[in-house]
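Researcher: Sequence recovery benchmark, item below. Answer with residues only.
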């Protein structure tokens, strides 16, 4: 009876949409939470917008992003634990400042692990020697908060933005980008002259 359970679950549940989208999302979340900035958020926002268009399932997007982020966070933590700490504590320039910063970081991770894990790269928790008994649950919670917040935000706000871009067209979008870029360049030039 129990041997047939995985088959029944597999037959009952299958991913909606393109499997490659989920694989790419999971990989991007994993890499992002391991410490490479950028790809996780972009992939999650894109997947959530696709879910709002009915091409992917929102719950599956959140679950895949959460799983990838959780695994990536564990990998980054291990890298920081095994390789990062010797680099930070090595003799050399600014060693005293590095050790003082390490002490402050260890206190932050010990007192507020979920907040620290959510706002810092995972390898920093390893460098701070946060115990796995505290890191793994906090990493899972932080990954779930991240996946849910970005996915739900993009799911709700993404389609209206995409519709505006579709209505304005490529030429309109380029005009808006040129106006904003020109304004920023003018302001930078003005400040430099002063």
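Model:
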């Amino acid at each position: 009876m129990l041997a047939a359970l995985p088959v029944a679950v597999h037959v009952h549940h299958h991913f909606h949409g393109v499997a490659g989208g989920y694989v790419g999302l999971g990989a991007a979340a994993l890499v992002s939470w391991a410490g490479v900035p950028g790809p996780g958020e972009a992939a999650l926002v894109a997947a959530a917008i696709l879910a709002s268009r009915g091409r992917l399932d929102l719950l599956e997007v959140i679950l895949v992003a959460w799983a990838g982020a959780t695994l990536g966070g564990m990998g980054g933590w291990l890298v920081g634990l095994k390789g990062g700490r010797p680099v930070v504590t090595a003799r050399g320039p600014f060693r005293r400042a590095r050790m003082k910063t390490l002490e402050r970081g260890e206190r932050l991770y010990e007192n507020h692990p979920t907040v620290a894990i959510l706002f810092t790269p995972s390898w920093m928790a390893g460098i701070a020697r946060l115990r796995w008994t505290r890191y793994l649950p906090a990493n899972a919670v932080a990954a779930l908060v991240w996946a849910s917040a970005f996915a739900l935000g993009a799911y709700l706000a993404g389609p209206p933005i995409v519709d505006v871009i579709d209505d304005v067209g490529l030429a309109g979008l380029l005009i808006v980008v040129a106006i904003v870029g020109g304004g920023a360049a003018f302001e930078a030039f003005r400040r430099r002259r002063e």
